[in-house]
Structure prediction request, 1336 residues.
Amino acid sequence: MNIDLSRRSFLKLAGAGVVATSVGAMGFGESEAAEIAHVRAFKLKTTTETRNTCPYCSVACGVIIYSKGDSRKGETADIVHIEGDADHPTNRGTLCPKGAALKDFVKSPTRLQHPMLRKPGSDTFERISWDDALDRIARLMKDDRDANLLAANAKGIPVNRWTTVGMLAASATTNETAWATFKFAKSLGIVGFDNQARV
Amino acid sequence: MTNSWTDIKNTDLVVVMGGNAAEAHPCGFKWVTEAKAHRGAKLIVVDPRYTRTASVSDYYAPIRQGTDIAFLNGVMKYCIDNDRVQWEYTKAFTNAAYLVKDGFGYKDGLFTGYDAEKRDYDRSTWDYVIGDDGFVVTDPTLQHPRCVWNLLKEHLAPYTPEMVERICGTPKEKFLRVAEMISECSTPTKTMTSMYALGWTQHSHGSQNIRAMAMLQLILGNIGVRGGGMNALRGHSNIQGLTDLGLMSHLLTGYLTAPTEKDEDFETYMSTRQFKPLRPGQTSYWQNYRKFMVSFQKAMWGDAARADNDWAFNYLAKLDVPSYDVLRVFELMHAGKVNGYLCQGFNPLLAFPNRAKNTKALSNLKWLVTMDPLETETARFWENHGDFNPVDTASIQTEVIQLPTTCFAEEDGSLTNSGRWLQWHWAGGTPPGEAKHDTYIIAQIFLRMRELYRTEGGAFPDPILNLSWDYADENEPTAEELAREINGRALSDVMDPADPTKVLVPAGKQVVNFSQLRDDGSTMSGCWIYSGCFNEQGNNMARRDNHDPDDTGTYLGWTFAWPLNRRTLYNRASADLEGKPWDPSRKLLEWDGAKWTGYDIPDIAPTAKPGDVGPFIMNQEGTARLFTRGMMRDGPFPAHMEPFESPVANVFNLKMRGNPVSRIFEDDAKQLGLSDEFPYAATSYRLTEHFHFWTKHNRVNAALQPEFFVEISEELAQERGITNGGWVRVWSKRGEVKAKAVVTKRIRPLICDGKPVHVVGIPLHWGFTGSAKKGFGPNSLVPFVGDANIETPESKAFLVNIEPSTPPKDKEGIA
Amino acid sequence: MDSPRTAVSNPPVQPMESNLTQRDLVRRSATSELPPPDRQLTPVAKLIDVSKCIGCKACQSACIEWNDTFPDIEENVGVYTNPHDLTENMFTLMRFTEWVNPETDNLEWLIRKDGCMHCADPGCLKACPSPGAIVQYSNGIVDFIHENCIGCGYCVKGCPFNIPRISKVDHRAYKCTLCSDRVAMGQGPACAKACPTQAIVFGTKDDMKKHADERIADLKSRGYANAGLYDPPGVGGTHVMYVLHHNDKPHIYADLPDDPKISAVIEVWKGVTKYTGLAAMGLAAAGAILHGLFGKANRVEPEDEVSAEKLVEEAEDLREGA
Prediction:
């Protein structure tokens, strides 16, 4: 069910408004004789559509991601365009200057590609493997927790409080990521745990 | 938001104050233009700057930043003085008639019980008179001098139009025009909406700003109705979701609260949370707290959470302070008391106040882990960029691990928008390079730590070893699995309370919503308010029926809204005491003689009789609070407080600085500036072309507003010899920035308490990474002090000085 | 009860024929004998309601992304208008004007989306010496056919709104196409679809005029007595129109011409092409004739002539080189 929905909603909004008449009047849908088109080739032709929402502000406008290739078929999906979803009740296809340029966020030259390590005192990042990075983080965290977890207060009441390591969660991640993150941080006893809601 | 974006089209008057909706939320603001086009709605903007929202307003009034309470109190007084009150609503649906203890009072800018040394109030007198029957004593005639209504009138008395002008700098006639337009919405058939954002929260008295408007909306009868409400336009796409899910120091999920050291065991914890009704027959929904809490503990720790071990209550950390909020954590870090820090998609170096302090704090860490799709200044806080980041790299001994994550376009899952809609989205692109999902990263760190605890043992390993982690591939839980866990399911058969022989939910099945959660360990649910999002009907967050019968703007078939797919909170208040809509043309709900029916999911028991049960079911009172007892640290009524750094003294108490009960650390108190040295009132904000620090990585947005600037009036430019487009230096007690000057008619000096106040506007976006030109953020200048209730930094009102300058220099040798 | 909006359906991804073809041309630059089109498309228009515009620049963003252009990241020079002018990489631009209304003493922040007006009587097309470099479709869209462009810059001179810009890279003229590629697929222009408040809407010109009437009535009810539609007759009307709150003085909106007309020089040049199809002439000859014509016009500054000449030469070099 979800896969179909992700592509295209066949529910059309009622009340087409002024514009629908113009589309009809221009003869849209007529079969044209093969003729050299003057206009630029339509760049969304044969792309894959995926429903998504804008990751910036909390209006959460509907967007459609257009890609060459379909990740659900196991192909590499290269995003070529992102545009507002006309079926979405809030934005109805519109987007703001940030949302309208989402493609260049996804494809920004400063998107991170690899785990990196900056050693103490160094003036540069160097590549590190995922395994090494994750093992290192787990080691650093466990050692600090073992050394600094306050298991009980002066009255002997269990408090399970770990104040020497803190965490900021990201308010652009999904609810599902947030729940996994919540479980992780709260089970460790991290109390210095916050997100952008506070600032 | 109490209402939804699409509901704004139903309003008659939009007040944008404490926000800049057209710039920060353009596609949500669309619904303001719809209301204007089809209802003839008017738009009022009250702001220190003439913003792009103001450019399409019907009326604009300037205000000095940080004085919104005085303005709103003035409007409330105007409404009461001119009998512009929705009386029936106010009497029935608020606590106006409740009697307050004799000891409570207000004098010289302070409420009863102030202790200057502790910077705190003894709030014991801020409470109701409780009768012998255990309920609050009321006077429905509103005659009693100690009823909330009369105390409120007394409290508002000083806020005359003249006083508003003196404090806010809003010319009296402009204030009166705004007050008049607002007061017209006291009739049941005219509605106003409040759209606000960080312009109200980022103050040391931010919570009280919002409270003042909420009270105004209540006496106008505008809460719970179509086109009304208190609409917090939240920032990030899922800041609502992360708050709902409790990713904060003092919260658990669904607004369950983290235990403190006072909560020595589970029963003690429960005893202060299962609120009993304060008036007869009221719902007081938090009486169900135990069901949600036990189901939460079961979601966390499964079989390890049992009745005989207090549902693993001791696995939870107990707080010794109200919260380890970001200011407290960075204070501790600055003091060398934090060793490690994880930053999942956040840029604290530029987001938290007092950048110099942040740099020092981060430099004290032994290690820092960042997870982000993009470069951030925080991940590179140790890198020298000349004036833009003047650090001594070699001396910084912090180990930094930077992990590349996917972004929205490469992952499935839901985000909760400002209107509480949980909307599912699907991955449309292949992640770049080796970027991984956050769920993979979190799972991997967790599993590796758990393995270390299994093999090595260590400090109190139980909550880690027993954490429920039951996923098809434990290395990377899927979004669907996590969503199902949030919704909750039956762990053993859940029986129907009406017929104990009937199985309501068989073991293993998803609960339909939180009404099926139990406190006996037979159910689990990660976040009770989200329950219903992914039940046996499937993923309700992925629903895409965009029909809207009768054009109400409700869209019940589109995705899922918490709670219970309800679109407007407190919607029972849209109908009168007989259950008829206040405005028949704007019906939301109606009592049909037996039950509530209408366009939305009722925010009350479906068969709760209209005359009996109040609409504010989450409150013990069943009514909304004009007087909020001791629930807020800085007062049961909003009172004017100046920012900590203000160009003028508090007219109610010349010696009082900022919020008298805000927490301020010693070193930060020393770093507060005074107006003789820093005469100009600065404020910070985001521009519509940008989204925080992300879009400086986007060539398109970088081109639309390429370079850091500050905005000042023509008068200030003349006073300081500053030319339009020229370089200026702006400095506060805590740091300096260099910027281009935009000299504009959109900012004009305000006359406050007889003297001119110049406003300096400082947008945020720039840093030293990305496509945009290198620049600074306002946080170099912002004081390290927060709101008294929630610790949101005072980024919207502080003091600076300004002078013409030369361009900043990058690191030598870098072009 | 909704306002008209540009997007009623999402763009197609299945292969479809373009609906704008050579046979829909009603005008072609430097071409005297164009066969009449065998059908008349319904005239379209983009309506820009300045009073609903929030100056967010979503139109600029959407334009950049749809047309794959790369505007420079410039400096701040004390204004919100960025880039500072239209360029070959920025086909549309929000121009910001802080105007104090002398009648009310209130500040009004006038924000106008600048770009090609798609004149019914297009000065650019008439000035263009290169056959088929500028065309006009029967729906009103004026489009540049870049492979036919010689980069002479006379379209810039011919435009009463100062819109086209010559690329420093490929020496060809660029401007808003009204997203002819989208319109050909039954979609509205990218800017109009994106516009958050639908201050920009797209449809048939008749419908847009009707919508404008409603908007003007609303503005008059809010005290803008001179609200009106900008559809200037001097260029035969336009297929990009504005609703202005102060239609009695268009110039306050960042120098929008009060009464735009095609320069007389262009009308003369149009006469020349009647007798001598440019195709018959060498490019250098065309340049010489143009030099002669424009040299006599007092509107053309000497440096413009020099640069125009230079551009014609460069265009030739470019062609020869290729």
Notes: The mean pLDDT of chain A is 85. Chain A touches chain B through 131 residues (CB under 8 Å).
